[in-house]
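INFO  loader      accepted 1 record
INFO  loader      residues=523
INFO  predictor   begin
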Amino acid sequence: MMKLIQSLEYLPLVEVSIFKPRAMKLIKKIIYVIVPVLMMSSCEGFLDKTDPTVLVVDTFYKDEAEIDQAVNGVYALLQDYFNNQWQFTEYISDNTTLQFNVGDRGQGPSLEALEYWQYNAGTGNISSLYNNSYYIIANINTLLDKLASSEVNQQVKDQAIGQVKFIRAYIYFDLVRFFGDVIVIDAPIQNPEEAFLASRVPENEVYQFILMDLEEAIAKLPESYPADQTGKATLGAGLTLLAKVQLTLKQYSESLATLNKILPLGYTLLDNYGDFYLTSNKNNSESIWEIQYLGLNTGGVNSSFIYTFAPRSSNGSVINFPGQDGGGWNIPTKEIIALYEEGDKRKDPSLKEGYIDQSGDWVSVPYINKYNHEHTVRGATDDNWPVFRYADVLLMLAENINEVNGPTSEAYGYLNMVRQRAGLDPISGLGKEDLRKAILKERRIELAFENHRWFDLKRTHSNSELIDLLLKHGKAEIESPTTDRGGIPFSNGDYQIEEYQLLFPIPADQIRINPKIRQNPGY
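INFO  predictor   done
INFO  writer      dumping tokens
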């Protein structure tokens, strides 16, 4: 696992091609990838360096160790990516909200804009999501290009290709669900002047590209790795992502067939739900893929989720350091707290409804508890982020079987495996529609605060149904806020959402740079 947290200097420019599945060929185009300023600062003069002790792209990738380092560099980029995904998947949904900060309105145009659905083409967090996604893709494309001419062992090359094509498919899967039509880039850039020829391709073509990447990745990914490489993408991770893509496309029979290939791979549910999240139990038998962090210091490989999620003014009562407050973001809503059934063993590991402050008083500000574990360095936690768990596979199996064959005993069996672990009574006797709703509710609780909710809502509801659900949630928050607002009323536009906002806007800076990139309707 240690190898996965090594970092690497990255190139800011990549050659690309635009994928055209309708013609079943690659038509070479060029696009300039806008890279965040902080990332660019680490790359200044990279191509001009001649010091033989400095890594240079043209002389790198020559042996197995350097290939491994380059692949680990891609994994390192995912640490920053997953540090921020909660904003766009949990917080924007009905699962979480914010602890209103009366004295500091600095996050109004960014984080609060996402919570209250007041985002637009100038919202900085959405721009960062877009840019960071393409930055990861750019580095993958460079690695794949260099692998093609590398003389290293073919098995080494194949494993590297499988891993990074899996990651590229994952990033594109996020992009297409967030933005709809997107630019597809599959090779490094060489002539930035031709960048302005690029344009977005339709969603269905993006999905074709994702499926092609996954087909190759799955053919090359191993079932497991040596202990010092734990955390890398495996065959199980590839199959899980493929099944999720197929489920999103409502290809239920295909998704079911893919999921059945995961069952013999040896994954199991842990006996105790909370044990999955322990930092002493990383990459356990229920884990299919998780993002690796190391909390030894604040050198960039640590996580810090609880510092973002803990209540403001908690003053060391939640994070066990004297005087330490949290950010007050991604706070569980009253709605999701109320959904937990009596005796559900998942509730306590997942969230707390408040805390006892330093004076011994109860403070009723809820917070996510999954990523709250003891650590030795202030600001540097050791928590991994779970991406795919076996429980997710079981619930997808139940969903697919119900869609293909109706509410069979097999569908109930997979659903009730998850419920039994939670200490809950089994479900039976429902019709197809009611079982569909029960599975979605179970996913909401079982996978709470793990970046699934927004995408689950989008794939299981029509646009009008989802708008109705979100407006109902917003109305409930306005009438009875999860956290106190200090007497500050909601703005007129808060919790008002229209159908066009179910896709994020293409960042305004991208439109300015390349007018051929059309904006999503409504923005």
